[in-house]
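REQUEST ID: PR-0412
SUBMITTED BY: lab tech R.K.
PRIORITY: routine
TASK: structure prediction, single protein chain
INPUT:
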Amino acid sequence: MVVNPRAFIQSAELGTLDPADIELGEVETETAALNLDKLPDGVVSGTTLIDFSAVPSMAVRAGVSLSMLFASRVATKAMKQEDDEDDWLASYTSNLGQLGFSLAGSAIINSKFRKTGLRVHKAIIPFLTVAFGGAAVGPIILAGLRNLQEADAGSPWIKLLDRETRRFKARELHFAAVSSNETDTSIRYAIARLNVDLNETNILFFKLTEAEAHFESSTTTMSANNSLLAAMEVDLRIRLGALTKAHIASAEL
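STATUS: complete
OUTPUT:
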């Protein structure tokens, strides 16, 4: 299949801002505006908490963040009433492929937490450590989850990540540990899916009970060419426009 990222960026349907998007954007303006040319080591872009600590290039950070946001928005717009979380994930990964990302096969594991009574953010740390290939990969994400009890549950990045998990009955938490060299970018992309029906304000602070300690996990390796990421960035910024501010938040973990 011939991939033409620029044509896809120009033609894909993004949808419009909803009231929740506008509300979050207003929250973010109360603090320093996020500069896409100087993204921090940890950001939330669309559905994904991203660790950029191993990516020195600001252009690569912006390209990855905007690509994931774009793929997420297009997937959401494409969903029909009968679709579920598997349909959304298939659309999301397909969109990343059309943006020029190469995706290796995913490893899917069904698990049960040995310890119940844990908060979600603590329970998924061992899974993420294995998914990333060790504690040295994705250190911003892992450290942030360990210290999440000290964070403000109302902070923009937690509100954004929590809201993006509420699309279907199953809640999916997406994490990406990104690294790059002079020519290519590699991403360890991990998803934790909790099949629970929650009315909790924040999924990350939800306490797992014995009956609700089952989850599915998926790990995929993605790669992208740095030159392609840089070339797509301008087009992505133009298409996303006002959506960018409301959908990329500084994680400040």
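NOTES: The first helix runs from residue 5 to 11.
REVIEWED BY: pending
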